[in-house]
Amino acid sequence: MPRFARPLPLLALTAALVSTGAAAPPGTATPPKVPVAAGYGGAVASVDADASAAGIAVLRSGGNAVDAAVATAAALGVTEPYSAGIGGGGYFVYYDAASRRVHTIDGRETAPATATAELFQENGRPIPFAEGQTSGRGVGVPGTPATWKSALDSWGTRPLHRLLKPAEKLARDGFTVDATFRAQTEANEARFRDFPDTRELFLPGGALPVVGSTFKNPDLAATYAELARKGTGALYRGPIAEDIVRTVRKPPVDPAATRNVRPGDLTAADLRAYGTKRQEPTRIGYRGLDVYSMAPSSSGGTTVGEALNILERTDLSRLSEAQYLHRFIEASRISFADRGRWVGDPAAEDVPTRELLSQRFADSRACLIDPDRALTSPLAPGDPRRPEPCATTGQAAPTTYEGENTTHLTVADRWGNVVSYTLTIESTGGSAITVPGRGFLLNNELTDFSFAPAAPGVPDPNLPGPGKRPRSSMSPTIVLEHGRPVLALGSPGGATIITTVLQTLTGHLDRGLPLVDAIAAPRASQRNQTTTELEPGLWNSPVRAELEALGQGFRQNPEIGAATAVQRLPDGRWLAAAETSRRGGGSAMVVHPHGRP
After folding, report:
1. Model pTM greater than 0.90?
2. Which domains occur in the chain, in start order?
3. Does 473 carry a binding-site annotation?
4. Which listed residue (406, 428, 434, 500) is catalytic?
5. Is 20 considered catalytic here?
6. What pLDDT, in 10s, does the model give residues 150-200?
7. Among 69, 218, 296, 411, which residue has the fewest nearby CB atoms (within 10 Å)?
8. 494 annotated to bind ligand
């Protein structure tokens, strides 16, 4: 097994605090959720115990991290259908132990070929967000099945049909409804009732699913079986593709519904034309480590990377809690200002990725931070191509809305390969439109585009366009030391993904928190907005008053993100970590918790 040469000092502390967790043997009940586990043979961390168990079973049978990630993702499509599934897309980051290289797959959804910058406008004005959210117009071409194929073709060792079997069985036999699933269903109840197929599937007997009951999805089981027989191409051409196109172009709305559900313009040609993109990851150096993530169309890698570069010159370990959070908030504010002006789909926009990640640009922006006074938002962007100390360029524009749902999984195997994979259908419940007879919800990912320029007269690189990928905040991240993985992480949460990953990284690497504690720590999220969101743990803390004395303003958010991570410990074990309470807690598992096999 690979070993990193210089263990971070806090890793031994983490190892001492670990409890163990492993998947139940095949055919037995899924074990309860455990947020942290350490052992040998590989690790999986996700939000769901059934999904983590599916990945661990693949690792145990000799599959690698890529195989396990696909099996885990497919299972999440069953148990987390409001967050992910084959009707959505995502970003896949992979560390290959043999070559010591990081690879990425952009599996983001794409707009129809007919899309224009006015996709979400009528009579020259943006339509209400809620009407774009629940519509065929918000549906992009799904990228998740193509992502699985691309990953398995390049690095996998197991065929897709074997990896889909656990998820197919889970959909057919059912999973146990928990409080989070019921709450998410309840939050979408009004939308779901307006679509007969969605209502029949997710409101069985016309009622909310009962906590502790078994939820089955035989249509999804049949769809997985069809993909297993025919391959993922079956979603892009043939009967499944025809069903998707028909559903988008004529959403199956209850005739009694009063909701204005606009049709979309997706075509069979759009589905046939879809392809994932292989591109170089973003990379920055931080505290002697190499931090890799997703390049645009995601803004995650550039925005987390710029913020880390801004913080690089400050010893965060020596600051008070208030000063640490102040610097974290200000670095987030600045990097989001630059994100809004410069980041979009590089196939359609001129995105200065390299310049955004330069230390020279970060230093020119870092000097805006005053330890005694907060900046105000919206803050104007800088110019990464011509950085000048403390300069801003052009007009400030607010950060546009981005839905807060998604899911993330993190996997490592016994050979040292690592996957960090974030996937989504956008809003909780996506578009709320289930493909009839197929058992999965369609995304509303195109609502991640700006409905109109964020501010009049300010260039916006995230307007819709033909075949364009909407800007994302997904930030699947892998951290290397001397070419070996020490940490991988990611989170759901819309634009709060970026601040969640940034806060978890700095909490762990700079503040010395064990990984599970860095994940559990109460969160703040500043996204170039007039106020910063705080979870209750910070809202009710004395540190809030200290920050307010610096001019920081706040609003409450009951829950920000839901991270998962894996870490390599100094003794060669893998540690998996997940949430202790957010979204009902996450599920961390390892193959051999009690020693080497």
Report:
1. yes
2. 36-279+406-592 (3.60.20.40)
3. yes
4. 406
5. no
6. 999 999 999 999 999 999 999 999 999 999 999 999 999 999 999 999 999
7. 218
8. yes
